[in-house]
C-alpha cells in the first residue's frame, strides 16, 4: 500500500513539474510565431496568459479559439493556443488530437513538435513525448526550453540523474532561468530531498523574471517541511484576492495528504543523516 501511495505522489508532483516546463515553450511560441500570409482572418487575442485564467475565462477562451481552430485546423498558432487551453481544462485527449493535426501540417516545426510532446505527456504517453521533444532539439541550435522539457519527462520516468543533467544543460544556455531552476528544485522534491529543493526554488523565486508558478512551487516545498504559515504567505504574494485564495486552497489540499508528505519527510531525514 505504501509503495502505491508513493508512486501516486510522485506522478502527481511530476505532472506539476512537467506542465511548468512546457508552459515556457508555449509562451515562447506565442511571442515569436509569425502570421501565415496564406491564412485569412486572425486568431482571437487572449487578454492574459492561459496559466493565469479563471475557470470561466478558460471556458470562454476555449470557445473562441476552438471556433478559430474549426475554421483552419492546420494553422500553427491557433492549434498551439487551443491545445494549451484544452490541457488547462483537463481535456488532455482532445488536446493531443488537436496537436496531432497541427503536427501533420507542420512536421518539422520545432515549436509544434515541442507542444506535441507536451500533449503526449499530458495524455500519459511519456516515452512518445520524450521521443518527440528529442526530435525537436537540434545539436547546432540547441534550445534551453527543450532541454528543460526533456528533463521534466525524464523525471516522470524515474530517470532523475538524466533529468538533472538536462536541466543543467538548459542552465548552461540560459543561466539563472527561473523556470529551469524551479524544475530542478521540483526534481529533488520527487526524490525526497526537500532541503536541496528549497535552495533551488528560492534561487528561482529571486530572479527578476520569476512568476507566480515558481513561488507556488516554493510555497509547496516549504509547506511540506511543516512551515505552513510561511508557505501560505508565499502562496498569496502578488496575486489578486481570487487567485490568492485559489492558490492557498490548492496548497492546503496538497498538504492535507499527510501520508505522502510523511513519507517524503522521512526520506528527507534519512538523506540528511546518511
Automatic annotation (TrEMBL):
Where is coiled-coil annotated?
none
Signal peptide positions are 1-23
Offer one Pfam family short name for this entry: TPR_4
Q: Where are the TPR repeats?
A: 144-177
Q: Which PROSITE patterns match?
A: PROKAR_LIPOPROTEIN, TPR
Keyword match Signal: yes
Keyword Transport found: no
What Gene Ontology terms describe what this protein does at the molecular function level?
identical protein binding
Its keywords, alphabetically, are: Signal, TPR repeat
Indicate what this protein is called per its UniProt record: Tetratricopeptide repeat protein
- The scientific name of the source species is Ciceribacter ferrooxidans
